[in-house]
Amino acid sequence: MTLEKLQYPIGKFIKPSSLVKEDFLHHIQDISEFPQKLNAAVKNISEQELNTPYRPGGWTVRQVIHHCADSHMNGLIRLKLTLTEDQPIIKPYAEAKWAALDDGKNLPITASMQIIEGVNQRWSHLLQQLPETDLHKSYFHPQYGETYTLYQQTALYA
User: Within 10 Å of residue 155's Cβ, how many Cβ atoms?
Assistant: First the structure.
């Protein structure tokens, strides 16, 4: 198996060019169900397994779980910024440096699991309430030099 396939097991994200309402509803469901699916996946995981990299040169399972909490917190904030500002420029963060901090490497996953549960509940609630016109609102990601609509952001996180 290639390193890229290990890094992107479901493939690299391709931004959808047009809004498909049915897909959007599936994306909300994915975001809503993610905490339960993650919890089921790690329910019986050992400390040794948590401290094992999921691929050569990659983060440990623990770091990936903490990264999900960091990423989803940023995702919710980006959604709220986009709903309350006119095409905000979001602040990127150094994901690998965050994962290398002590909390990412050593903290029990319970804290991040609780964050993911609460953030995803709020996030999916907001998404369910959005009028379709709001899905075309966008933010600018300076690290990638790209604009993302809220529909595209939802597809990315799903």
Answer: 21
Q: Give residue for tokens 């897909």.
A: 23
pLDDT digits (tens, 9 = 90+) for 92-133: 999 999 999 999 999 999 999 999 999 999 999 999 999 999
Query: Which residues are CB-neighbours of 127 under 8 A, at least 6 positions away?
Result: 27, 28, 31, 79, 154
CB 21 within 8 A of CB 110: no
From CA 101, how far away is CA 67, in angstroms rounded? 11
Q: Does residue 87 have a pLDDT over 90?
A: yes
Beta bridge partners of 60: 53
Note the pTM of the prediction, 2 decimals: 0.92
| Cβ–Cβ under 8 Å, residues 120 and 45 | no
* Cα separation values, 17 from 11, 26, 131, Å: 17, 17, 19
Which tokens is 148 given?
A: 């993302």
